[in-house]
Amino acid sequence: MKILIAGGSGFIGSHLSERLLNEGHEVDVIDNLVSGREANISHLMNHENFNFIKEDIVKNVPDNDYDRIYNMASPASPVDFKKIPLEILMTGSIGHKNLLDQAAKCGARILFASTSEVYGDPLVNPQPETYFGNVNCRGERACYDEAKRFGEALTVNYQNHKGVETRTVRIFNTYGPHMAPNDGRVTPNFFIQSLKGEPLTIYGDGKQTRSLCYVSDMVEGLIRLMESDITDPVNIGNQREMTILEIGDAINAMTGNKSKHTFFELPENDPKLRQPDTTRAKELLNWEAKVSLEEGLKKSLEYFKQFV
Ligand code: UDP
Q: Is 303 an active-site residue?
């Protein structure tokens, strides 16, 4: 198939690009490198079926005859929410509309990378896809949460009113190689700090929870969803819920870091709990996370060592 991956040099997009190339597909990546990194795709550049287009999907989308379009494009770190909120809002809305229009034009099936952030600071745990969420539409995270919520609304209406074949994945916290070391999210921060023997920076009391999914599990879920006939949103994430302190302890145990933690204020609207209800993924896609935390952290550690 001929496949377009928007955001294909980002963290998850670059793993998806490599996997689809290895399966024998032709892969075009469009990325403006705002948060994506050339280093993530440098090993793919000489592949005969790979084509990189440095461009912003808000401005332009390649007019080719694609079979599949994956929209993985958006900065997704809370650090970016503060720095480039308008770019994030436009990417999730106008950028996604441009990809949907291209899908309508060439008859491609399109997958929208939505997020667990559509559930906001959730009042139910774990979160099933039927939960409408608890989002502050004016808060610091709103640029990302609301762009993704709008993107989902666009997606379902292109499906229903323009006959575009769409898929929607809600991605929960994912980690692994190709994360930017200065990304600001919990795994890169903790790995770099731990490898340097520094105290881990804990926001709030560290009792808030996240469920970390290793990137190869995520990519498997994305492809299964794309090739399924499921048009409803599907959560993809690991069900092992841990506190931030427990995640820090697991990383420190691997590096032997004995430094104490330093505590900082919890960012505004930081979700207190997050765990995917993955019943739908299990029943409809026969998907579940397979990579254990220990295995995933070990592979990530090898990757992060180069930055220290
Ligand atoms: N966090 C932390 N220290 C850090 C980075 C993040 O305690 O150096 C916390 C953050 O407040 C949040 C959780 O870890 O509760 C996950 O944050 P991240 O930015 O990775 O992703 P989020 O799930 O909030 O989008």
A: no
